[in-house]
Design goal:
By secondary structure, the chain is mostly helical. It has a single domain, classed as ABC transporter involved in vitamin B12 uptake, BtuC, CATH 1.10.3470. A two-stranded antiparallel ribbon has the order 1-2. A hairpin with a 2-residue loop joins strand 1 and strand 2.
């Protein structure tokens, strides 16, 4: 059962990255691969605010959210807006990921930094398995944020406007929707989410520069399995990837864990190209 809890924890992190992808994708049809590095930046800011500045927990979360959201807005301005509507969007997000990774390493170095957890570190026994409170918090965060994503995208005018912009930017603009503000808002919200997760993800993964590249790939796999633009898909996709990785690592060896994850991705793409919760779009011209 301990291995299952470990898989669920990994899955929660992957699912939260996939959810960040979906926030931007629903509004802009952009795969923001730099989102994983924004989350990594959040872990470093959490370390800086907690260990160096010794700020209270509330201020640590606030500082992480504000700084990472501001960086995400800068990304939209310099890496997305100039190439919007072209194939270069994907390349520029990868480029921004690399740039952010280099800046992070320049500031904090390449060594892993331990981010203190603000809550209890006592090991709990749940259903016969060992689990830490921070791991339970990560799982709860995935459920809560996925539920908020679904509620906003399906039950509010803001959510409907986001879907309209994603479907047809020109038509949405003619209907009076501020397309540029929606795009900036999506990046700001996804960045704030990444920042808020920094103090929770950091104690589990450490603050390490290479974390972003790993999470970017696994988060994308979780998004593809669950379905592009789907909140429940991010949740199920993340958990699926995490459990496959942990269970295959246990029974087949660590060298097979990535192989089994991408085998599962290939199987889902062959059977259901839109993902488990995705929907094919039809457009009449």
């Amino acid at each position: 059962m301990t291995v299952i809890w470990s898989g669920l924890t990994l899955g929660a992190i992957y699912g939260l990255v996939a959810l960040g992808y979906n926030i931007v994708f629903v509004t802009s049809n952009v795969f923001n691969f730099a989102h994983a590095q924004l989350l990594t930046l959040g872990t470093f800011i959490a370390f800086w605010a907690t260990v160096t500045l010794k700020l209270p927990t509330v201020l640590v979360f606030l500082l992480c959210a504000v700084i990472v959201a501001a960086v995400a807005v800068v990304e939209e301005r310099i890496a997305i807006r100039p190439v919007r509507g072209t194939e270069g969007q994907l390349v520029t997000t990868v480029g921004f990921l690399t740039l952010l990774e280099g800046v992070t390493q320049l500031i904090w170095g390449g060594q892993p930094l331990q981010v203190p957890f603000f809550g209890s570190e006592k090991v709990l026994s749940v259903f016969g398995g060992r689990v830490f409170p921070v791991e339970l918090m990560l799982m709860g965060a995935l459920v809560v944020f996925a539920a908020i994503f679904v509620a906003v995208s399906r039950g509010t005018m803001l959510g409907i406007a986001m879907l309209a912009v994603s479907e047809d930017r020109e038509a949405a603009l003619m209907r009076g929707i501020n397309v540029r503000a929606m795009a900036i808002g999506a990046f700001a919200v996804s960045g704030a989410l990444a920042g808020l997760l920094g103090p929770v993800v950091g104690p589990e993964t450490f603050a390490v520069v290479s974390l972003g590249s790993s999470l970017a790939l696994k988060g994308f796999v979780a998004m593809a399995i669950g379905g592009f633009g789907s909140g429940p898909g991010a949740l199920i996709g993340g958990i699926t990837v995490g459990l496959i990785e942990s269970e295959s690592g246990r029974y087949l060896g660590e060298s097979y864990s990535n192989l089994m994850v991408f085998t599962a991705l290939l199987a889902v793409m062959l059977l259901r190209p839109t993902g488990l919760f995705g929907h094919a779009r039809e457009r009449v011209v």
